[in-house]
């Protein structure tokens, strides 16, 4: 994963940051996220720009590439397939900051996906999480680190975070302070052992599974000036 961001500052005020994310997609399935605001955060706006049917950097997705996006109301992923010149069923599916998706590389060789745009900034960034449900999400800003300590997600007891290794799911269950002796970090892995909080990379989508009977929100304040 490569990324760079730039901003202008007079020492007191600064502009919104602009930059790029560049992700190498290996053969198989990768959990991705576009964490930048482009002029259009649709599949066509990100991967099918102009008459050349290219991404912003001029490269083209291999035909047969698929994007899977979670449809919570139907409990399944909606699949969009790239022909080399267009998306089927259409290119209007969004891939906004805060949303996660799977990209399926069926070409047999790695390729690079590039996102370019503005970093969201100022005020509160909010992602709504439905009670007792699964949400495929990402950080709204291109920042790597612990899901709590850096990215500002405050889980409730019974919540879980699932990250995709490329071949399997890594599962982190949140116990809070229910058992600080055996689980001093508040997190338990899929083997029942205490573990550090999940660490999320730039451009990575992941699951949050809420265990609460009430809707939750992932809320944080972010400024590129700091």
Helix content: under 10%
Major sheet summary line: 5 strands, antiparallel
- Rg result: 18 Å
Order of helices and strands: EEEHEEEEEEEEEEEEEE
Strand order of the largest sheet: 3-7-4-5-6
Query: How many individual β-strands?
Result: 17
Instruction: Please identify the structural class as seen in this structure.
Output: mainly beta
Strand percentage:
35-45%
Number of separate domains: 2
Shape: globular
Low-confidence runs of at least 5 consecutive residues: none
Number of helices: 1
What does this 3D model show about the protein?
The chain is mainly β and 226 residues long. It has one helix spanning 43-47, and strands at residues 2-6, 18-25, 28-32, 66-71, 76-82, 87-88, 101-105, 111-118, 124-129, 134-137, 145-146, 160-164, 169-174, 187-189, 199-200, 206-209, 216-221. The strands form 5 sheets. It has a 5-stranded antiparallel beta sheet with strand order 3-7-4-5-6, with no helix packed on it. Strands 10-16-12-13-14 form a 5-stranded antiparallel beta sheet, with no helix packed on it. Strands 1-2-8 form a 3-stranded antiparallel beta sheet, with no helix packed on it. Strand 5 (76-82) and strand 6 (87-88) form a beta hairpin. The longest helix is centred in the N-terminal third of the chain and has 5 residues, at 43-47.
